[in-house]
User: Which sequence fits this backbone?
């Protein structure tokens, strides 16, 4: 069960942002064993908002991503690994007309590399991701979750996207357990499915639906829902230095 925006949600929100902002077309460079399926989801998301997928480069595990990035236009990059943040930084610095959209979890896992690669801020406004989290190191946070996170994690260097994800997930699990008279894996799953959507502080999760509850088919296949999170915003990497976000409509 996902507690963060799913990949499909991120594609959808970013596609909506592109459709509202500029339209036109976008490229994709995807390094994954499921690259073809990801490209298809991205293509359909883009088409929903009048944006076409101009090209999709599907790579195997050992292939270099940066070798396939366009020199201009918008490109979705999936499958980042160690060293890619620096390569992306050099690419956007060399090509002022390119904008790179990355998956938030990959950005979070490589956050230290991104910070080092973009330490002077150049080009950081052209690396973009979608997230439901508040800013992880806002010194004057408006978000209740961010305020509690800052109080719990007192060292600024320890406040990262990944640690905030863990903090928010822990808050959610604590809330769920506090409402259960008996704890088990089944009871925990039922908590989410019975409540459909769960709010903790200023975070909202769901909706969730158990596929077994679907009356349309005997198996219930295709009827389950796991939308991960809502209130998703589109942010540039430059938010690392200036905690402001550009909101995008929800899917």
Assistant:
């Amino acid at each position: 069960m996902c507690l963060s925006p799913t990949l499909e949600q991120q594609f959808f929100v970013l596609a909506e942002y592109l459709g509202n902002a500029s339209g036109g077309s976008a490229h994709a460079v995807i390094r994954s064993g499921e690259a073809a399926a990801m490209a298809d989801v991205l293509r359909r998301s883009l088409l929903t908002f009048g944006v076409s997928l101009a090209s999709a480069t599907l790579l195997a595990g050992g292939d270099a991503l940066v070798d396939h990035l366009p020199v201009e236009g918008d490109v979705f990059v999936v499958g980042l690994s160690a060293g890619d943040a620096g390569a992306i930084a050099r690419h956007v610095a060399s090509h002022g007309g390119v904008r790179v959209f990355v998956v938030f979890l990959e950005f979070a896992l490589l956050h230290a590399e991104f910070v080092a690669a973009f330490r002077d801020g150049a080009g950081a406004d052209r690396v973009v991701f979608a997230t439901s989290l508040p800013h992880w190191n806002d010194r004057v946070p408006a978000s209740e979750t961010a305020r509690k996170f800052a109080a719990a994690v007192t060292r600024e260097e320890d406040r990262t996207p990944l640690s905030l994800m863990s903090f928010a997930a822990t808050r959610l699990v604590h809330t769920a357990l506090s409402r259960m008279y008996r704890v088990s894996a089944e009871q925990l799953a039922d908590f989410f499915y019975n409540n459909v959507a769960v709010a903790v502080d200023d975070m909202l999760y769901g909706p969730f639906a158990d596929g077994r509850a679907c009356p349309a088919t005997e198996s219930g296949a295709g009827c389950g829902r796991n939308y991960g999170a809502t209130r998703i915003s589109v942010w540039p990497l430059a938010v690392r230095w200036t905690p402001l976000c550009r909101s995008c409509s929800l899917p």
